């Protein structure tokens, strides 16, 4: 019971699965060890639906031993390898937390790298078993970041992903994160990547939005508090935000992941002082509040958004 309570919160709360009903079905089938039906449900989804199924692992309390049982029964299942790889990635980051490396203890770091290496092994095998699943490739790119694998290898995987699914949001965001100064890249590389791919599909409008957020947060990492406080007040930044909002209004957002874009847009509009536009966008994702953008500003539920 507690497992599903963790996985699916009140619709007023942020939900990394966006309340996607098939994610609930997916994890019920896993708990019942109906692995053939798990495979059938997953393969019947488009890439964005698959992304939401896998996102459920971020809130799950599922035992790794259950997935190991599945893997033992069917070692050549790409999905079984993918799921345990995603779960090990989640466990790794639970140990490390999101704090800066200098604040991570030796024990935390050891556990982080141990589970990330396990995830890397599982996800490499998943890609070998099914090289046509963009979600598997995206998950592997994410692990590359934590293990500090050369960026060239990640870019090579990304190019493979682009052929399979040009619109894949997670794959693009994994590379965008990898190109930030925090992970060994630079603002110039990150901005160039964003500018190169942001027009490919409507949902990739998320790239310049997160690029702005990363630039803002980078000032904080550099302890440049004055610039951090001023960034979204700059007329230059406001003009960029205004342009992105106008693009958003002209687009047709049909992906299941479109609410993620809307959540990030709302945050950027709020920071830049566009309150009326912010309120309009917030209404578009009622019941589909995504946690990542709002955790940056201490917002924990939808009711708080309505009062902003």
Give a summary of the structure in a few sentences:
With 308 residues, the protein is an all-alpha fold.
Order of helices and strands: HHHHHHHHHHHHHHHHHH
Query: Between the first and last Cα atoms, what is the distance in angstroms?
Result: 34 Å
Please provide the count of β strands. 0
CATH superfamily of the largest domain: Tetratricopeptide repeat domain
The helix fraction, in percent, is 55-70%
CATH class of the largest domain: Mainly Alpha
Tag the structure with descriptive keywords.
mainly alpha; disordered N terminus; 2 domains; single chain; Serine Threonine Protein Phosphatase 5, Tetratricopeptide repeat; 0% strand; 308 residues
Mind explaining what this structure looks like?
It is a single chain. The protein has 308 residues and is an all-alpha fold. It has two domains: 1-178, Tetratricopeptide repeat domain (Serine Threonine Protein Phosphatase 5, Tetratricopeptide repeat); 207-308, no CATH class. The protein is built from 18 helices and no strands.
Topology:
Blueprint: H1 2-7, H2 21-31, H3 35-43, H4 47-55, H5 64-73, H6 78-96, H7 106-129, H8 134-147, H9 151-164, H10 169-178, H11 187-197, H12 206-221, H13 225-230, H14 235-250, H15 258-271, H16 275-284, H17 291-295, H18 302-307
